[in-house]
Amino acid sequence: MTIYRFKEGFAWGAATASYQIEGAYDEDGRGLSIWDTFSHTPGKVKNGDNGDVACDSYHRYKEDVQLLKELGVSTYRFSIAWPRIYPKGRGEANRLGLDYYHRLVDELLANGIEPFCTLYHWDLPQALEDEGGWNNRGTIDAFVAFAETMFKEFGGKIKKWITFNEPWCSSFLSNYLGIHAPGNKDLQLATNIAHHILVAHGRTVSLFRKLGAEGIIGIAPNMTWAVPYGPSEEDRKACLRNIQWTGDWFKDPIFFGKYPDELRECIEGAGATIPILDGDMEDIRQPIDFLGLNYYSASINRYNPEAGLLKSEPIESHYEKSDIGWPYDAVGFYDSLRYVKDKYGDIPIYITENGACINDAPGLDGRVRDDRRIDYYKQHLVSLSRAIDAGVNVVGYMAWSLLDNFEWAEGYDMRFGLVYVDFRTLKRTKKDSYYWYEKVARNNWFEVK
């Protein structure tokens, strides 16, 4: 038996996102988001599912905060629904929307849980999408104004802020691969959007400093890992392009003021250009207080000149797969963290998402025996402990997710939660993984036999 202990003050938490759990899509003045439009478009989401009700956390937030308290976590990462604050994306703030988040934050604080707030987790107001969305630089200004409202409204109550969650998903997954809202398939459009999101991030960080806001601010990009199939330089570079596309494309401009050279050549070679205007890179390159990282999976890849933009082909391997079909290998988590440390230095890191889709349902006794999820968490927390011992400055970890929820284009078929949600009755049931993670969060250690 091995015991893995974490340093005193290590922050254990759980994470969610507004569109995935809140529901109440047309209540109290909330405007439509691109995900409302996308999910109501036939054929875009499995089973025709949408987030109209989701987990109904808008009305059940007190119950969900009690689940967090009983889980023993010290922090809760959630996101603000931009269209709940600005139904048209800009203009006059919706007081009822602000009041909801005040109620949520006050409930968290009353129960000893620190709010960790994401400003953008993909639910762009549809009114702004109608004006061109993130392809329109006017959306940058609208986002910064939205952020200013949040900083001023919640100053002193929320002290940890994330500007953008997984900007790769908002840009390339959504606008080049077309899998997420708004569902475009245009590399130039996606490249424009990725750049504009980074400019919005940088200007928001600058505003945070200018306001003298209390607390810290960062960003939460994807973190993926790819292992070369063979020893060739072509295979190695193919894997590096995978790693850089989802992560470094968004981190390098912040830390170094430039995009990754080889990946930039790859994208430009495919006919897209980065729409850099004077001052953009200076705006983007603002020091951040921490880096959030979301990690789920790893793959084994090889070079294939016919394999799309990156010429990087994932192959079937010995890796286990979660029920959503993502291969995973916890060693990749360790290697990813070492890679980030070696490239970007000693910046504090929060693991802002990590978890597995395991679709176990309650048995006849009502118990959810999700042993595979527990095993996933054990493997990845071992790698996390190893990385910390190797000098990676990880200061907190947030399990994805507190609740089973609306899993984007997969609808309600795929379950990541520590808590099982019956989407007909909305009843919450703690899974075995909930009780396992509770022990970790309360004890600040776990054991592997």
Automatic annotation (TrEMBL):
<feature type="binding site">
    <location>
        <position position="121"/>
    </location>
    <ligand>
        <name>substrate</name>
    </ligand>
</feature>
<dbReference type="InterPro" id="IPR001360">
    <property type="entry name" value="Glyco_hydro_1"/>
</dbReference>
<dbReference type="GO" id="GO:0008422">
    <property type="term" value="F:beta-glucosidase activity"/>
</dbReference>
<feature type="active site" description="Proton donor">
    <location>
        <position position="166"/>
    </location>
</feature>
<keyword id="KW-0378">Hydrolase</keyword>
<dbReference type="Pfam" id="PF00232">
    <property type="entry name" value="Glyco_hydro_1"/>
</dbReference>
<dbReference type="InterPro" id="IPR017853">
    <property type="entry name" value="GH"/>
</dbReference>
<dbReference type="GO" id="GO:0030245">
    <property type="term" value="P:cellulose catabolic process"/>
</dbReference>
<feature type="active site" description="Nucleophile">
    <location>
        <position position="353"/>
    </location>
</feature>
<dbReference type="InterPro" id="IPR033132">
    <property type="entry name" value="GH_1_N_CS"/>
</dbReference>
<dbReference type="GO" id="GO:0005829">
    <property type="term" value="C:cytosol"/>
</dbReference>
<feature type="binding site">
    <location>
        <begin position="407"/>
        <end position="408"/>
    </location>
    <ligand>
        <name>substrate</name>
    </ligand>
</feature>
<feature type="binding site">
    <location>
        <position position="400"/>
    </location>
    <ligand>
        <name>substrate</name>
    </ligand>
</feature>
<keyword id="KW-0136">Cellulose degradation</keyword>
<keyword id="KW-0624">Polysaccharide degradation</keyword>
<feature type="binding site">
    <location>
        <position position="165"/>
    </location>
    <ligand>
        <name>substrate</name>
    </ligand>
</feature>
<feature type="binding site">
    <location>
        <position position="296"/>
    </location>
    <ligand>
        <name>substrate</name>
    </ligand>
</feature>
<protein>
    <recommendedName>
        <fullName>Beta-glucosidase</fullName>
        <ecNumber>3.2.1.21</ecNumber>
    </recommendedName>
</protein>
<dbReference type="InterPro" id="IPR018120">
    <property type="entry name" value="Glyco_hydro_1_AS"/>
</dbReference>
<dbReference type="InterPro" id="IPR017736">
    <property type="entry name" value="Glyco_hydro_1_beta-glucosidase"/>
</dbReference>
<keyword id="KW-0326">Glycosidase</keyword>
<comment type="similarity">
    <text>Belongs to the glycosyl hydrolase 1 family.</text>
</comment>
<feature type="binding site">
    <location>
        <position position="20"/>
    </location>
    <ligand>
        <name>substrate</name>
    </ligand>
</feature>
<keyword id="KW-0119">Carbohydrate metabolism</keyword>
